[in-house]
Task: structure prediction
Amino acid sequence: MDLKEKHALGDQADTHWYYVSKARMITRHLPRRGYEILDVGAGVGWFSRWLLKNGFGNSAVCVDPGYDTDSKTEVAGKPIFYRREVGALGSDLVLLMDVLVFRV
Result:
């Protein structure tokens, strides 16, 4: 979820059909295990948070240039890091949800 959408949806994102249906579609194709998640263009990190809450991850690194500062919190007792940028990481699940990457 984009950082701007957080103000519009607030806590309703947890039950909003768009986010929930995408998360369910993704997890339908993943074995349930403890992934080390890298979420590029994460915004508020909704998908990473959902994966951690539902047993699909051990930790997550959410990367978005829109963050004011780097921070860390926990979701379901698992660490989630918010970073403006990162170097090489040992992740085994990479998310680019609603991210367009191009170079001019």
Observations:
- Strands lie at 35-40, 57-63, 71-75, 78-83, 93-95.
